[in-house]
Design a protein that fits this description.
The complex is a heterodimer of chains A (189) and B (189).
Chain A lengths: L4 H9 L3 H23 L2 H17 L10 H22 L14 E4 L7 H19 L3 H12 L4 H8 L3 H18 L7
Chain B lengths: L2 H13 L4 H13 L1 H18 L3 E3 L2 H16 L21 H34 L9 H6 L10 H9 L12 H4 L1 H7 L1
Helix pairs in contact in B: 1-2, 1-3, 2-3
Classes of the chains: A mainly alpha (189), B mainly alpha (189).
C-alpha cells in the first residue's frame, strides 16, 4: 500500500481494516524494539506491541485530533512498557536469555566491533550497561532508551511524555550520570 | 571556563545542543584539561555503547503471527468512543447536571406556589358556601337518625335530599352540612 501515514490514519479512522493492517506492518518492529530495550524481555515486548495496537484500534476516533500518529503510538507503547517495567521491578524479574530463545535472532550484536576478543569484551560491557539501565527508575530508564538507544529527539520525548523538554533533558542527564557512576572504570578505553 | 562549568555542559556538548560559542568554549577547555577530557571520553563511550545496543529480531514467523493476532483481536472490537448518533442527549451529559438540578428546582417551586395559591382560595369557598364559624361533632345519635324517617335532626326534605344524594353529610368543611345540621350546631355549641 503506497500511502502516507496521515492518509492511512484517515482511512483507518474511516473503518478501513487494510489501512490498519498497513500501520501495524509499518510500526510493529519499531515498537517491539522500543519495548524490548525498556523491558529486556521478549514476552513483555510482545505484549506491549499487541496491546498498543489494540488500544489504538479502540481509540481510533481520537486519532482525528492527533498531529503525530507516531508520537501517539509511541506514547501508548512507552507508558505501557513503564507500567510493565514497574511491575517487573516489584517482582524482581530476571530478564530472559535471548540466546536461548528458539528462532530468536540477534541481528546485530555490535556494529562497531572487529575482532572476536573485542566482541567478547563488548558483549560483556553491553550486558553490564543493560544491568545498569535496569537499576534506574522506570522513567529515567525509558528516557535513556528513547533518546540514546532508539534515537528520539528531546522534543519528541517531551511530546511522548507530555512534559517540558527541560524535564527530559534533566532525566537524561541524571540517567547518564548514574550509568557512568555504575560503570566507572569499564568505560575507560 | 572552570572545570565545574565545563562538566555541567558536557552532556549538551555531546548531544550537540550547545550554541556555537558555548560549544567552542567547552572545546577549548577539553584541549587543556585532562580530567575533563577523561570525563568527556567516558560520557562519549557510554553514549556510543547505548547507541549500539543490539537490535533483536524475533523472526518472520513471529511477525506474521503477531500481525494476525492483532488483526484478530481488533476485527470485532468496536471503538470505545461513542458514535455521534449514540451520544447521550445534552440533558444527560455531565455538563447539564446543573441545568437538570435547576429545572427540577423550578418545577418543585411551581408545585409549591400552586399549592399555596389553591390552599389560600379553599377556606374562602367553604366559608362562603356554608356560613359556618365553628366545627361540629357527629354523634352516635345523629348517625342513627340519618336515613330514618321522622327523626328530630333532619327535616323530611333534607332526608329526601340525603336519599337522592343531593345533600352530603361529613366532616367539617363539607359543602352543605351547615344547612343540614343547623339544629345540631345549635345544640352542640
Amino acid at each position: 500500500m503506497n500511502k502516507t501515514v496521515p492518509e492511512l490514519v484517515e482511512m483507518f479512522v474511516g473503518g478501513d481494516q487494510k489501512a490498519f493492517a498497513e500501520l501495524v506492518h509499518r510500526y510493529k518492529k519499531k515498537l517491539y524494539s522500543l519495548a524490548y530495550h525498556i523491558l529486556r524481555n521478549h514476552l513483555d515486548a510482545d505484549e506491549v506491541v499487541q496491546e498498543t495496537f489494540v488500544r489504538i484500534y479502540k481509540r481510533r476516533e481520537e486519532l482525528l485530533n492527533v498531529n503525530y500518529f507516531s508520537t501517539f503510538l509511541t506514547r501508548i507503547a512507552t507508558n505501557y512498557s513503564i507500567d510493565l517495567l514497574r511491575k517487573q521491578k516489584n517482582r524482581q524479574a530476571v530478564p530472559d536469555d535471548t540466546d536461548s530463545l528458539p528462532g530468536f535472532i540477534q541481528l546485530d550484536l555490535s556494529r562497531r566491533v572487529a575482532t572476536p576478543s573485542q566482541t567478547f569484551e563488548n558483549k560483556e560491557l553491553m550486558e553490564e550497561i543493560q544491568r545498569a539501565l535496569e537499576s534506574l527508575p522506570a522513567r529515567q530508564q525509558a528516557t535513556a532508551v528513547l533518546h540514546d538507544i532508539e534515537g528520539y529527539s528531546k522534543a519528541e520525548i517531551a511530546r511522548i511524555f507530555d512534559c517540558p523538554q527541560a524535564t527530559v533533558r534533566s532525566n537524561l542527564h541524571i540517567a547518564r550520570a548514574k550509568l557512568r557512576k555504575i560503570l566507572k572504570g569499564r568505560l575507560i578505553r | 571556563m572552570t572545570c565545574r562549568h565545563a562538566k555541567s555542559l558536557l552532556e549538551d556538548y555531546i548531544d550537540g545542543d550547545l550554541e556555537l560559542d558555548q560549544s567552542a568554549e567547552v572545546d577549548s577547555h577539553l584541549n587543556i584539561c585532562k580530567e575533563c577530557r577523561g570525563e568527556y571520553h567516558q560520557a562519549l563511550r557510554l553514549k556510543e555503547f547505548l547507541e549500539n545496543q543490539p537490535i533483536f529480531d524475533p523472526g518472520e514467523d513471529y511477525w506474521r503471527e503477531t500481525t494476525e493476532l492483532i488483526l484478530a483481536r481488533t476485527e470485532a472490537s468496536p471503538s470505545e468512543r461513542v458514535a455521534p448518533e449514540n451520544r447521550r442527549p445534552i440533558w444527560d451529559t455531565g455538563r447539564a447536571t446543573l441545568a437538570r438540578a435547576a429545572a427540577s428546582f423550578a418545577v418543585s417551586l411551581g408545585v409549591l406556589v400552586s399549592a399555596v395559591v389553591i390552599g389560600s382560595m379553599q377556606p374562602a369557598q367553604i366559608v362562603d358556601s356554608t356560613d359556618i364559624d365553628n366545627p361540629f361533632v357527629m354523634t352516635a345519635s345523629v348517625r342513627d337518625a340519618v336515613g330514618t324517617s321522622g327523626n328530630e335532626l333532619l327535616t323530611a326534605a333534607e332526608s329526601s335530599r340525603l336519599a337522592r344524594g343531593t345533600l352530603l353529610l361529613g366532616a367539617p368543611g363539607m359543602l352543605g352540612k351547615g344547612i343540614a345540621f343547623r339544629e345540631l350546631l345549635t345544640s352542640t355549641k
